[in-house]
Every structure is written in structure tokens, then in C-alpha cells.
Amino acid sequence: MSAGQTTAGAPPAAEDELLAHFEALVASGETVEPRDWMPDGYRRMLLRQIAQHAHSEIIGMQPEGAWLTRAPSLHRKSVLIAKVQDEAGHGLYLYSAAETLGADRADLLDALHRGQQRFAATFNHPALTWADTGAIAWLTDGAAVINQAPLCRTSYGPYARAMRRVCQEEAFHVRQGYDLMRALCEGTPEQRRMAQDAVDRWWLPAVALMFGPPDTEAGGADARTAALGAAVSRRAIAWGIKHHTNDELRQRFVDQCVPQAERLGLTLPDPAIRWNEERGHYDFTPVDWETYRDALGDDTHWARQRVAHRRAAHEDGAWVREAAAAYAAREDAGVPPAGTGAAGIAADRTEAAA
Amino acid sequence: MSRGREGAPASWEVFVRPRRGLAHQHVGSVRADDADTALGRARDLYVRRGDPLSLWVVRSDSVHAVSPDERDPYFSTARHKPYRYPEQFAPLTQEGPDGDHDQ
């Protein structure tokens, strides 16, 4: 079978056949690869999700990055640098995956900078104390792992491979965050208070925002929101992009966190949390999505701040990109760059090329 | 040559040899204007952990490829040729349901 890359101009009969082939591939649990034919809707849904995910990774560097110079010990500082560096890496894995779908990385960054593409609103919260870096890693990275573990089996090959790398590193993020919280909880009463305060502020953003809007009525959404979310989730599940509803993953997260918080002696700020013998899960207060969306729209101070900071970093780095391009252009032209060491290397290259 | 598309640095495929005895494996891609920068970025991005033995970068547009779904007949030499497999032939010993053929 010859499957072209594009649907443009394909006669309807051929497209039916391509679609059947695509659906059989997904149904059999095989991955879809960049050169395979795929429906436009599939490509668009993937691009939207991967771009949102990539943007979240690099914006997510900001709240914790703010504490790099104020870490309480050299060890914690090294750990935090490694973690923030990983987040940059995750963004790059994902931008690479997006590029296999025909997107241009510069366009994606541009869309982020113009506010045309979103990132997880979780990161619109500020990290007010050192304990926040622990709570972010334990709770929001913990939520990310639950979201992302099933994505290691997502139907699009490059995305699945990126997620496998991401998940291996996220495990370190969650563990070091939990360890940081444990150290505070075993410390002075003031340190314990600081840990509890951070959990009070980061619990809801993690539960509500890391999993997306409710997509079942059981998740507490009104019928309309639930139906809307369910339609999107159904499509994503049918295409093998997702494997679970948002609410299913949210429940899994709560079930995992409650005993972890108990071991630390911390209280999760939700009075409704209690074990439900019948369901075999912890009950918790349903997410009030409307309130959250309003409180954390693009117009909040921190949302604007995050994008402005990202844009400034990009613009301040322009001269580095220009210099790298100029250096490469000179090298291509065979002009030895200034400096003896570099000139030696360039001379070797010219000789080899001759 | 250094620019893949207008304004964007070229794409490079990254290969890592994770340890002795293994071939270089494709791990992903980076963007960079020249090979040295590509190697540096590949190191920062793909070998932050572990103890890899070596790293290759190859410009993405230098990779020539065929895929079975696109050019079926291209791979037809591998099909319908059961005689290329050892189990198609009489076993050398009588052990096991299919015999042992190459131990």
C-alpha cells in the first residue's frame, strides 16, 4: 500500500482506504509514525496537546527557578538546578515531537509569546516560600506522572518516545520534592508550618488544573461541562492519544496523595477527603472548574508575568542565536573564525573538505 | 547550509551508544547551526544521566530513508522467502518439538 503524507487532492475513495488503514493501526495498539497518513483532526489534536505540554514544561521552570539562588544548602541547590534543567529538556523533547507533525518550533514559541497557545495554569501560581519548591515537585510533578505514565503508550510514536524519557526523569522530581517536604516536616515547628502552608496553596492547583476540566458527571461537573469534556476525551481515547478520562486520573492522584500526606503528618486542604469503602477510593470535593478558570484566566497578574518573563528571555537571547548563525555561516564559507584554537579547527575542516 | 528553513537552525538527529557492546541508538533530535553546537546541545539534552560512551549527530536532511508502508515493493525481498530461516530445514538433533538446529 502506498500511503502518501498528505490528504491534499486525494480522491475520497483513497482517503477512505487510508482512514481504514489508520484506524486499524490504532486499534491494534501499533504506533502511528510521522510519515504515516493520519486524519487532520488527529494531527490537530496531537499538535494542540503536545504544544500545550511543551509550553507547560518551559513555563513550569519559572516558579521553582526563582528559588535557585536561595536554596538552603548546596545539595538542595544542585538538586533543584538538575530538576529545572530537566524541565527545559522536557520542553525540547516535546517541541521536537511537535515538529514531526509539521509544526515549526519558532511558530510554537511565537504562539506562546502572543498568548495564542496555552500552558498549564498551575504555573500561574507564585512559589512564595522554599517549601513551595517541595510542594510543586511532590504534588504537581506527582500529578504529571499520573497523567504522563499512560502517555508513554500514546498512539503517536514520537510523542510516546518523548514521554518515556520524561517519565523516567519525573520520578526523580517527585521523590526529591517529597524528600524536601519530609525534611521540613521533621524540622522545627516553623518549618512544619511552612510545609503545611505550601501544601494548602498547591493542593487545589494540582488536583484541579493538572488534569484538565472534569469530563464525567461523577467528577462533579454540571451536565453541559461534563458532556463537552466527555466528547473531547472520547475522541482522544478513540484515537489512542489518551487512555483515561481526566476524572479517572484525578481520582488516581488523590488516592495516591492521601497516604503520602499522612506519612508526612500533613493535612490536605479538603475536608471532604475520606476513604469510601464502597468505591474503593478516597472521596474529595469535586472541582469547581468555572471558579478556577475565572480565577486563573490569562488576565491574572501571574499569567501575564510568566509570559512576559518567557518573552524577555527569548528576546534577550536573540544575539546568541544570531551569533551562532553568523559563526556557522562563516565556517561554511571557509572563513577561519577569530582566535587561534578555533582557527586551527576550521583549518582542519577546510583541509578535510578539499 | 547551516539553516534548515528560513530563520530556523538546522535539525540534527542524535545517536547515543549507551554502553559497550551496543550500537548507537537514535534518541531524538536537536536544532543547531553547526555540528559542534549540535553535539553540545545533544549532550545537554540526551545524556544528562547515565554513562554513555559516545554521541553522534547527523543532519536530519542527510538521512535517506524508505518506509515499508510507502514503498512496499522495496522490502519485498524479505517476504515469502521462508528458506532464509533455519527452522525451515531438517533439525540437526532430535531434541525438542522442532529439534535443535543451531546449538
UniProtKB/TrEMBL annotation, chain A:
Q: Name one Pfam family in it.
A: PaaA_PaaC
| A GO biological process held by the record | phenylacetate catabolic process
Q: What is this protein called?
A: Phenylacetate-CoA oxygenase subunit PaaA
| Species of provenance | Streptomyces minutiscleroticus
Give the UniProt entry's GO cellular component terms. Answer: cytosol
Name the NCBIfam families for this protein: PA_CoA_Oxy1
Q: Name one GO molecular function term.
A: phenylacetyl-CoA 1,2-epoxidase activity
Automatic annotation (TrEMBL), chain B:
Top-level division of the source organism's lineage:
Bacteria
Q: Which InterPro entries match?
A: PaaB, PaaB_sf
Query: NCBIfam families recorded for this chain?
Result: PA_CoA_Oxy2
In its UniProt entry, what is this protein called? Phenylacetate-CoA oxygenase subunit PaaB
Organism in which the protein naturally occurs:
Streptomyces minutiscleroticus
Show the taxonomic lineage.
Bacteria, Bacillati, Actinomycetota, Actinomycetes, Kitasatosporales
Gene label: paaB
